[in-house]
């Protein structure tokens, strides 16, 4: 297969040292492909971009009300959080509402992604726990979903567990796919992860932002997720993270969510422009260093990045490349050939 086009160049001095290739799809809420780069039908693992739809497994049965969950808790269920103390506290609180604790989490432990939090943990002599895992909120939400649905939580992470079949049904439905036909593998946190065309992911995010009456049966659930992203952006990622800054810059207008291996998805509300739109892309080599810049470049090319938001996100537009002394020695330039 031909290599996908270059989405970003990495400059050292004024010369190109490396490139990042990839594909992107822009889809409206009815599933129409509006624009693309490379192959919009390329199959990708959704990774953490699936989290808002996985959270629906609890929200669908009113679990957020039953367990008295606020926007912080719902946001953390959709998050790839940095393992900051506030994230750990909310994850622990979600678990406690269902009578669970950290030992019930099947996501595994890793150091906080937030460097300051990781350093503090190291200095304290403590080891990271599953609560520090960036997926602990998602796992905690699924444990509560088991409780709310009267299911045994033992083995909740396995593909054959009823909660996973329900969860994959939400992912597939929003992506416009038949659940039985979705190929899955094991994600970094041990849950099943779906393999679906890039344009399907874009469609799912357009539907998530849709306010159409045709999507009415899930309207309250979708609004709950949107409000969590906009009201608690610090829970979705964390300090110094693009997704949190992106959500703050576009509150009420867009949401965005990263996934591992260079995946990102954006949902844009319709407003005066008509229906909602979804954008999804993947950096082919899995690198994340150009991901933020590519996201903003695609938004700009779609004429959906207002000047004020671009100014607030300026450090991500063409990020600097620095050496070990902190000297700026180059930059990343995103120029996605959107058609």
Structural class by sheet pairing and helices: alpha+beta
* Level-1 CATH class name: Alpha Beta
Q: What overall geometry do the principal axes of the alpha carbons give?
A: globular
Strand content: 15-25%
Level-2 CATH architecture? 3-Layer(aba) Sandwich
Q: Main beta sheet, described?
A: 8 strands, antiparallel
| CA-based gyration radius | 19 Å
Strand tally: 11
Provide the low-confidence segments as ranges.
Answer: none
The total of helices stands at: 14
Helix content: 25-40%
Taken in chain order, the helices and strands follow as: EEEEHHHHHHHEEHHHHEEEHHHEE
CATH third-tier fold name:
Beta-lactamase
Distance between the termini: 20 Å
Question: Mean pLDDT across all residues, rounded?
Answer: 96
User: What count of domains describes the coordinates?
Assistant: 1
Features:
339 residues, alpha+beta, Beta-lactamase, eight-stranded antiparallel sheet, three-stranded antiparallel sheet, 14 helices
